[in-house]
């Protein structure tokens, strides 16, 4: 087992609700959620990077480290991310703090958070935080193992959002579906 896989498993065992998976996302899922990003994508924010599988794919797509900001609650993951991704801004704290710490105008928020295992109020706080920093037309990208967005129609309506389902990535444990949320 690689050091990253072992770190991920240890953090899952000590925080099952927040980490929610025993293995990181596959590189195929990470590339799929970062699809379309590039050097001209503007400021990107990632919620819940864990060991950094998706972070790596965002940088590999051409986003400059100076344009990437991470929010990760787990201190051991934060230490790992700081070593692995010099030049990327890393906040050790919850995604809900983003509007307090960042100026609006972010192009895309990419989330690896286990939104489905969160309570409705927490999920809604996270979405409110994301759309408070996003520029008009900005998107919130998320993957799900449940083949449907973590928010039902009523929750989306109450937040003024709409969902677009993206493709399914079979090469992941378990297979995952990408979706994007936009202001309705
Ligand atoms: C399912 S893991 C995903 C890790 C990584 N994105 C991946 O796809 O491999 C969820 C991550 O979200 C972090 N997390 C959970 N709640 C959070 C919150 N409110 N704000 C920021 N990070 C959070 C966990 O510590 C964990 O690193």
Q: How much of the polypeptide forms β-strand, as a percent range? A: 25-35%
Stretches with pLDDT under 50, minimum 5 residues = none
State the shape: globular
Task: Summarize the main sheet.
Answer: 7 strands, mixed
Query: What is the number of strand segments?
Result: 7
- SS summary, helix count: 8
Structural class: alpha/beta
Bound small molecules, by name, code or SMILES, are:
S-adenosylmethionine
Strand order of the largest sheet: 3-2-1-4-5-7-6
Order of helices and strands: HHHEHEHEHEHEHEE
Mean of residue pLDDT values:
95
The whole-angstrom Rg is 15 Å
How would you summarize this macromolecular structure in one to three sentences?
By secondary structure, this protein is an alpha/beta fold. It is built from eight helices and seven strands.
């Amino acid at each position: 087992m690689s050091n990253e896989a072992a770190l991920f498993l240890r953090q899952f065992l000590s925080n099952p609700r927040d980490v929610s998976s025993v293995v990181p996302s596959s590189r195929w899922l990470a590339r799929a959620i970062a699809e379309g990003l590039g050097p001209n994508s503007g400021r990107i924010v990632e919620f819940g990077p864990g060991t950094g599988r998706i972070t790596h794919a965002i940088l590999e797509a051409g986003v400059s480290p100076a344009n990437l900001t991470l929010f990760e609650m787990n201190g051991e993951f934060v230490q790992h991310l700081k070593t692995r991704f010099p030049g990327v801004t890393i906040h050790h704290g919850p995604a809900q703090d983003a509007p307090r710490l960042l100026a609006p105008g972010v192009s895309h928020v990419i989330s690896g958070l286990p939104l489905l295992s969160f309570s409705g109020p927490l999920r809604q706080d996270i979405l409110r935080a994301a759309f408070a920093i996003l520029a008009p037309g900005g998107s919130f990208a998320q993957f799900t193992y449940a083949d449907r967005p973590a928010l039902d129609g009523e929750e989306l309506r109450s937040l003024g959002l709409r969902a677009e389902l993206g493709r399914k990535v079979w090469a992941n444990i378990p297979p995952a579906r990408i979706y994007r949320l936009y202001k309705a």
